[in-house]
Amino acid sequence: MARIIYGVSGQGFGHSTRSKEIIDFLIDSGHEVLILTYGQALFFLEKDYKVLEVPGMVLSYKNNKLSYLRTGGRNVIQFIKRSAKWIPIQNKIKKFKPDLAITDFEATTCLLAVTQKIPLISIDNQHQLTRTKIACKGYRKELVGTKLIIKSMVWGAKKYFITTFYETPIRKRNTFLFPPIIRREVLNLESKRGDYILVYQNSSFNDNLEIFKKSKEKFVIFGLDKEGKEDNLEFKNYSSHEFLNYLAGCKAVIATAGLSLITESLHLKKPYLAMPVKKQVEQILNSQYLEKMGYGISTYDLTMEDLSEFLSNLKNFENNLENYPFKDNSAIFKKLEESINNWT
Q1: Same domain, yes or no, for 278 and 302?
Q2: CA nearest neighbour of 263 among 278, 279, 247
Q3: What are 93-116's pLDDT values in tens digits?
Q4: In angstroms, how far is the first alpha carbon of the chain from the final one?
């Protein structure tokens, strides 16, 4: 049995839902796990696990664009906060006596592992940008900036496990590509083709509602914190269970280009119209490869022409998705257990 500290980025729920699958596997395998996290992930994980709150590094957005200036300013503040709490956090980690550290893009865990000479494994999708050969068409400057952020967040790992739905050539040693981690709730879903399109948005996309109303399609919309119906639009407050049921039953998805929702949609064979956050290179890459692989289209500012193109090609996307490979989480679990056994 190994004693493991597991750092989880607290921005959004993608990191925490992905990490939960691995944490459950580790606990079921007999290991003891202490989670280090903050923000939304703290709320999600503290109910079921042993969790230590740490100051978190965040990305900051303005008008649906990644702001490097605001990101830098907010993280300076977080660094100051982390400095004040550093000694108590160190003492708690020393008391736990970890054999191994794992981080899903969480910086404090990385710093603790490096300073205390604990073997570190990185599990995320971000390092695909820094450890494989990749190009972001039309966004070279943003790609360089994003690589610097990634390298400043996590470094010095013994191994880098990268989860991705598209393969790129590995260019650095101790780097391994794995299929996306799919939640058990999603693996257990039965996909059906309903009569509606699922939309996951936030308030930045209110202009799209008028476009949807001009269509003859039915849209079920999550993310706007409202309930009710307006013409062909049905608004739903977010509930994980309800959202997944609607995901399983829709005929297509329209949403931003985060990895988790894209890969869960592809797993369920759902065509996807991606609207990446501007200057957010990870989302831009996801949307570019999604389009390249023939699973959907991408756009930054939705127009009626974009929606019409997407709807007219649903059958082609569905045919392409028939070849999307079914893969569970067994490959990354096997490699992780092998690594733990080698180091403990």
Answers
A1: yes
A2: 247
A3: 999 999 999 999 999 999 999 999
A4: 8
Using DSSP bridges, classify how beta strands 61-62 and 65-66 pair: parallel, antiparallel or unpaired. antiparallel
| One domain, residues 198 and 172 | no
What CATH code is carried by the domain that includes residue 44?
A: 3.40.50.2000
Whole-angstrom distance, CA of residue 24 vs CA of residue 213: 43
Q: Are residues 162 and 208 in the same domain?
A: no
Structure pTM? 0.91
Number of residues written out for the chain: 344
Claim to verify: residue 167 and residue 41 sit in the same structural domain: yes
> Domain containing 216: what range?
185-321
**Total domain count, the chain:** 2
pLDDT reading at 164 higher than 90: yes
Q: Provide CB contacts within 8 A for 116, sequence distance 6+.
A: 90, 93, 94
Q: Are 20 and 121 in the same domain?
A: yes
The answer, yes or no, to whether residue 78 has pLDDT greater than 90, is no
